[in-house]
Specification:
alpha/beta; binds adenine; 281 residues; eleven-stranded mixed β-sheet; 6 helices; 28% helix; 13 strands; single chain; two-stranded antiparallel sheet
Length: 281
């Protein structure tokens, strides 16, 4: 029997960022409240389908945007999607641009991150009762799933949206935006885009061996430009968010329908083995 013939029951976990979490993208919807050893996820899970593909949608900030990025229970979110049987994770995130050529409305399929967070639980393995046991020294050279990124890039391009095929996301603690000096420093560090949620989300997905890719959508030019009129504020973010959410929906609907034509067995297995190999028990 060929390895590729072992069926993997595909289920796609979708984490929707601010304004990018409309449950209407799923058909045959049902809501599910769940609990995990790490507490409760941000919101109810919405189980349903895109085409023939089973999906589970979770609003990262809860559906009323009630949660500050610092206080999102990232561990419960990732654990809940894993427990629900998700095999691949695709997330959306609004972000600021640190580059002139990445314009508000553009899509970036990020491939790296720089972690500037400092008040978040970023490992499942914390030695606490009822939590995963051991210490996970998870490799982070390639945090995002390359095959999943490639399918996303192809899809975004096929929709004629402006797609940047790679990019380094700087994740700040927030909830405040960056000062001009910080923003200029992040540019000098080769950051391309900036948000408040990619870390620890992608790290936790890696700890559980879940292939993870992100659709980052620029809403603003952060704070690095000379003219203070150009600096990010909430109204600038909101202005682009509506358009971005329509594009996010188009991308998700198309990419998820196309996923079953790829054999994900080896990709999923590789991620699981990487996660297992990281544990110092
Ligand atoms: N989310 C959207 N725009 C942002 C910015 N400029 N900084 C951090 N998070 C963001």
């Amino acid at each position: 029997q060929k390895k590729s013939k072992i069926a993997v029951q595909m289920k796609i976990g979708i984490i929707g960022g601010s304004g990018l979490d409309d449950p209407d993208i799923l058909t045959d919807r049902s809501e599910k409240s769940v609990d995990t050893p790490y507490g409760q996820p941000s919101d109810k899970l919405i189980c349903g389908k895109i085409g023939d593909v089973d999906c589970v949608l979770l609003a990262r900030h809860d559906r009323q945007h009630g949660q500050s990025p610092t206080f999102i229970n990232y561990r419960a979110n990732i654990f809940a999607l894993h427990k629900e049987g998700c095999t691949l994770l695709i997330v959306t995130t609004a972000c600021g641009s640190l580059r002139e050529h990445i314009e508000p409305g553009d899509v970036v399929i990020i491939d790296q991150f720089i972690d500037r967070t400092y008040r978040r639980e970023s490992s499942f393995y914390d030695g606490k009762e009822g939590h995963l046991k051991g210490v996970s020294h998870i490799a982070m050279g390639e945090p995002f799933c390359q095959p999943l990124r490639e399918v996303l890039i192809k899809t975004v391009k096929s929709l004629k949206l402006t797609c940047h095929e790679k990019g380094t996301m700087v994740t700040i603690e927030g909830p405040r935006f960056s000062s001009r000096a910080e923003s200029i420093m992040f540019r000098s560090w080769q950051g391309d885009v900036i948000n408040m949620t990619t870390v620890p989300e992608v790290v936790l997905a890696n700890e559980l061996g879940l292939p993870y890719a992100a659709i980052a959508m620029a809403t603003d030019y952060d704070s690095w430009r000379e003219d203070p009129q150009d600096h990010v504020d909430c109204s600038k973010v909101m202005k682009t968010l509506q358009k971005n959410s329509e594009n996010a929906e188009k991308i998700l609907k198309k990419v998820i329908r196309e996923l079953p034509s790829t054999d994900w067995h080896d990709v999923i297995l590789e991620h699981k083995e990487k996660a297992k190999g990281a544990i110092f028990a």
